[in-house]
Design brief:
Elements lengths: L5 H15 L8 H14 L5 H9 L3 H11 L11 H12 L5 E6 L5 H12 L5 E7 L2 H9 L1 E3 L8 H7 E5 L2 E4 L1 H4 L2 E5 L12 E6 L8 H12 L2 E9 L12 E5 L2 E4 L2
Parallel strand pairs: 1-2, 1-7, 2-6, 7-8
Antiparallel strand pairs: 3-5, 4-5, 8-10, 9-10
Length: 260
């Protein structure tokens, strides 16, 4: 079976950038191509040519399938927990009757559920989280709420018992009451989005590294436009805002406040 050519991979990477802002440079093609090969094999395309033709003719289902294969990343509960502790401090300093939080690029739900568990453990109940991602496959996983024990490695046995029900060997289901604190949305940060009410806190961690400066700016503008003045913006510890917007002030490690 004929492989995808360099020119075809280049065209697909351009399509990914145009639609999702994910910037794949030629030196990363050696990692990109195996994901394409896996998609072609798993989704029963007759070969690379059929898959390529579907993409290039604007097949939306094919494009959505593509994003599920290139955005699936490894995550786990209580990743970079310093931000969750800081959130508690902010909420203690500025108590609110209805705190709104947006977890953008939430993947399979470990981050928003980690926030929920942290706040509930601190006796904080007046909040709601909007969790979003472009990958419908991970959002389906999020909706099911069943996780392998490897994702819970940073949690104590007490927390496991408190917030999960053991389904079968090595698998745990999140307890239903936690689901009441979160709404799940399919959102592409490259498309303009405007919520009816702005957020007090926004988490967008470990996703900006996949953008170039242009698409990163588009995503950040989209996010900050939905953050209240005085609201807090969290990014991943491995990330940096090379062109920091004028209305953001850095107040901690990967933590920013909207000033205007």
């Amino acid at each position: 079976m004929k492989d995808l050519s360099y020119r075809q991979i280049q065209a697909i990477s351009s399509l990914v950038y145009e639609n999702f802002g994910i910037f794949i440079t030629p030196d990363k093609f050696f990692r990109f191509k195996p994901k394409l090969d896996k998609l072609i094999h798993n989704e029963n395309y007759s070969g690379p040519e059929e898959f390529y033709d579907c993409l290039m003719t604007g097949d939306i289902e094919c494009l959505n399938m593509l994003v599920t294969y290139i955005t699936t990343g490894h995550t786990f509960f209580f990743r970079e927990p310093e931000h969750f502790r800081q959130l508690v401090v902010f909420l203690r300093e500025h108590p609110q009757s209805n705190c709104r939080i947006w977890c953008a690029a939430c993947s399979t739900g470990e981050e928003p559920y980690s926030i929920i568990m942290t706040l509930l453990d601190e006796g904080i109940h007046n909040f709601h989280i909007v969790a979003s991602d472009i990958n419908k496959k991970v959002l389906d996983h999020f909706n099911r709420g069943v996780y392998h024990e490897s994702r819970l490695s940073q949690m104590s046995s007490v927390s496991r018992l408190k917030y999960f029900t053991r389904k079968r060997e090595s698998w745990y289901e999140i307890k239903h009451q936690l689901r009441n604190y979160v709404s799940i949305k399919d959102i592409n940060l490259m498309n303009p989005v405007s919520f009816p009410e702005k957020f007090d806190y926004i988490f967008c961690r470990n996703v900006l590294i996949y953008f170039n400066e242009q698409s990163r700016k588009k995503a950040i503008d989209n996010l900050i436009n939905n953050l209240k003045v005085g609201g807090i913006f969290f990014i991943g510890h491995a990330e940096a805002l090379l062109q920091q917007p004028e209305n953001l002030k850095k107040i901690g490690s990967s933590v920013y406040r909207r000033t205007s």
